[in-house]
Write a structure and sequence with these properties.
The protein contains 12 helices and 44 strands. It is α+β, with helices and mostly antiparallel strands and about 750 residues long. It has a 12-stranded antiparallel beta sheet. Strand 13 (about 200-205) and strand 14 (about 210-215) form a beta hairpin. Helix 3 (about 285-300) packs parallel to helix 4 (about 330-340) and helix 10 packs parallel to helix 11 (about 555-570). The longest helix is centred in the middle third of the chain and has 17 residues, at about 400-415.
């Protein structure tokens, strides 16, 4: 129902490939140039190359100088008013656009464009378009393709050295280095987390050579990452133009910082959201069961901040009417009040589809609140793949539909609901028609942005924060925190694929990501439940949810004990985790990050995708097999085993065996980790007493602790055998421990 349209294919020998062959200068501005490009078919196209910001070059190719894709209005790319210190040099058949950290160097005849850093080091260059022995081009060059006289796609090709690695593209569940893959920017209901089909696509990637590429289009852009030919990345944009940005590094963190400036800063979730979320599961729930669940959580001293109620808070068969099932939830006001008194926030499931059997459907259809088909009638679509009645899809391009939908959510928030899980939104059919005239193809990917915008707006209005818990996303979606990895299967293999998806998504600009601890589909074995709970507890956010119960007490006693120990570890590390979250919101560097973020010069760091850094100082390697043994790569430097305090020299793999109650966890030598005693909740207020744990801390070690009441800095100085800790800020530091370096400690 929502598969992407296929590009038409030229018949063998048919014309229609228009490659830019030469250009001439039309005008030069302070920050860029406009060129008249001529193709091999003697067509005229307009090229605009400009400095869009420090370290950012924008390249646009179209037939019309004012061309802009309609989906770009939804993406809301920030196009800065140029770069004040930009320089444009023209003359002798060459043009240079200098944006500080990146330069575009253009040869006009024959056409070629390359990008260098400020020192002249080549970052990336257009592929010259070599031909094979038959005389055919191996790649799609900078230009466009025509079929039956109509432009169907623009394209670009970049040469790729054999050792270059590429990552990003959104939440793809394949290996982190996408070389040899062909990511398609089309949001799918992926039915799991073990393929290249993704719920969240982002037409952005970064390279191990120290640059990134963003394509500003909501269309089904395709990236051939050295698959058709191992020496070239090809970008195919089925749109009226190609509009892309080259972002300077040199590090992935630098690329992400510029990416945020171009798109938007990530939204920091409220502090309580970093606590545990425990779900009802995907089966009929009741008010009595919810309250019993809450009491058991508190009685068993399981730290938890959020109770999530999935689909069945509504009447079965009437999703998403957004009304309580009054038989199963006779007094939701009282329930929400009592849960709040117990310290729980409440999350409710919903989606943007309304069953054609819903009592809300006729009026909404009459008022034009749903997407239409080609005949102008409501598009009634099989959004649930046969498992639920066909639905209307709310048209968020219609302001009245947005207001109507928010009017359904507002009373729930006013009742005391804290946040919504915004499920689905990958189901816009390619042949649908929107209120604002967008086709289904134009709307499909960016629909999720409109959906989450609407929910975030009303949540901010009533609850004071703009958080959602979203399954789908697209370019610029970091404005919606948080996102989770979808309906993954309960297996070790799926857990590993989920981890890969999270790392890729983090390198696509989205730092606040999560997944269903225990897996979603099926029932995990007790050991897998514990291992996945550990992975979840050391993820940016953690939620226990599945088609069967993920409540710890529903598993054998040893499994419950292991899962709860992982949750308590998370709450013990909460000052460290929240500090990492604040930094991520400010810089765009993910909390849970592939090793290449901190070790970009290490080739292994671009390939090691079953482990990650959590913040700057913790290295986490989830146990990905039932055997309890795995290889862990330790980057250069010294590392301390969190559990045994054994020290390791990095720059190598080590084999690790851990008992079921421990996740492989290492601390960067010299780090200061702020910890606190686990409580029932994280809550909204400042942390209580904090203990600093040093791992070889010595002269010059330092730490920052971010909290809702401000930042605290900790610095160390040494006087003989005494290590003095100087604290500045509101945090209540009550103790210091130092592992590996026994010294006398003074706190002041």
């Amino acid at each position: 129902m929502a598969d992407p349209p296929e590009l038409p294919v030229r018949a063998r020998g048919e014309g229609g490939l228009s490659a830019l062959t030469r250009a001439e200068l039309v005008s030069a501005e302070e920050s860029g140039v406009t060129l008249k490009g001529v193709t091999g078919a003697e067509e005229t196209l307009v090229v605009h190359v400009s400095a869009a910001g420090e370290g950012v070059i924008r390249v646009k190719l179209a037939q019309d100088a004012d061309a802009r894709t309609r989906s770009a209005r939804v993406i809301r790319m920030v196009t800065p008013g140029g770069y004040p210190d930009a320089r444009v040099e023209t003359g002798d058949g060459e043009v240079v656009v200098d944006a500080g950290s990146v330069r575009a160097e253009i040869t006009l005849n024959p056409w070629n464009m390359r990008f260098t850093d400020a020192n002249g080091r080549l970052l990336v260059a257009q592929d010259p378009g070599h031909v094979d022995i038959s005389g055919r081009l191996r790649t799609l060059p900078f230009g466009r393709s025509m079929v039956d006289g109509t432009p169907v796609a623009y394209h670009e090709s970049f040469a790729a050295p054999p050792d270059e690695a590429f990552t990003g593209f959104g939440e793809s569940f394949t290996p982190l280095d996408k070389r040899g893959q062909r990511p398609l920017m089309w949001n799918f209901d992926a039915f799991g987390a073990e393929s290249q089909r993704a719920y969240k696509n982002v037409p952005f990637y970064m390279s191990s050579r120290g640059y990134g590429i963003v394509v500003d289009s909501g269309m089904p852009v395709e990236f051939d990452v050295c698959q058709s030919t191992h020496s070239c990345v090809q970008i195919i944009v089925p749109d009226d133009l190609i509009d892309y940005y080259v972002l300077a590094g040199p590090s992935p963190a630098d690329v992400l910082r510029r990416y945020n400036a171009l798109t938007c800063a990530p939204l920091l979730p409220p502090k309580w959201a970093f606590g545990t979320w425990i779900s009802s599961g995907f089966f009929v729930d009741t008010q009595e069961r919810v309250m019993n669940r809450a009491r058991v959580i508190r009685e068993r001293n399981i730290p938890c901040d959020v109770l999530h109620l999935d689909c069945f808070w509504q009447v079965k068969g009437h999703w998403s009417d957004l009304r309580w099932d009054r038989d199963n939830f006779p007094d939701p006001d009282a329930m929400l009040r009592e849960l709040a008194e117990m310290g729980f926030k409440v999350s409710l499931w919903m989606n943007p589809y309304v069953s054609h059997l819903s009592p809300d459907f006729p009026e909404a259809a009459k008022k034009g609140y749903f997407l239409k088909n080609q005949d102008g009638e409501v598009y009634v679509a099989d959004c649930w793949h046969g498992s639920y009645p066909a639905c209307g899809i709310i048209d968020f391009t219609n302001p009245e539909a947005v207001a109507w939908f928010q009017g359904l959510l507002r009373p729930l928030l006013e009742q005391g609901v804290s946040v919504f899980k915004t499920d689905f939104a990958e189901g816009v059919p390619a042949d649908a028609v929107a209120y604002n005239g967008m086709s289904g193809t134009e709307l499909h990917n960016v629909y999720t942005l409109l959906f989450n915008d609407a929910v975030a707006e009303v949540t901010r209005e009533v609850a004071g924060h703009g958080m959602v818990w979203a399954r789908s996303s697209f370019l610029g979606g970091q404005r919606h925190s948080a996102q989770w990895g979808g309906d993954t299967y309960a297996s070790y293999t799926a857990m590993g694929s989920t981890l890969r998806g999270g790392l890729a998504h983090g390198l696509s600009g989205v730092p606040f990501w999560s997944h269903d601890a225990g897996g979603f589909t099926g029932t995990p074995t007790p050991d897998l439940y514990v291992r996945w709970a550990q992975f979840g507890a050391l993820s940016p956010l953690v939620r226990f949810h599945g088609t069967t119960s993920r409540e710890p007490w529903e598993f054998p006693e040893h499994a419950e004990r292991g899962a709860v120990a992982a949750i308590r570890l998370r709450y013990r590390l909460m000052p460290y985790l929240y500090t990492a979250a604040v930094e991520s919101a400010e810089t765009g560097a993910p909390m849970m990050r592939a090793l290449c973020v901190d070790y970009p010069e290490d080739p292994v760091a671009w390939q090691a995708d079953l482990q990650y850094m959590l913040g700057r100082d913790l290295l986490v390697a989830p146990m990905i097999s039932a055997e309890g043994t795995r290889q862990v790569y330790l980057p250069a430097g010294r590392w301390v085993d969190y559990w045994t305090e054994e020290e390791y020299e990095g720059g190598r793999y080590i084999r690790v065996t851990t008992p079921l109650d421990r996740i492989p966890l290492f601390v960067r030598y010299g780090a200061l980790i702020p910890t606190t005693e686990p409580a029932d909740t994280v809550g909204d207020g400042p942390f209580g007493d904090i203990t600093l744990v040093g791992y070889g801390a010595d002269e010059g070690s330092s730490a920052t602790i971010a909290d809702v009441n401000g930042r605290t800095t900790v610095e160390t100085t040494r006087d003989g055998d005494t290590l003095r800790f100087t604290v500045r800020g509101p945090a209540r530091i009550r103790g210091v421990q130092n592992v590996r370096t026994p010294v006398e400690i003074q706190l002041r």
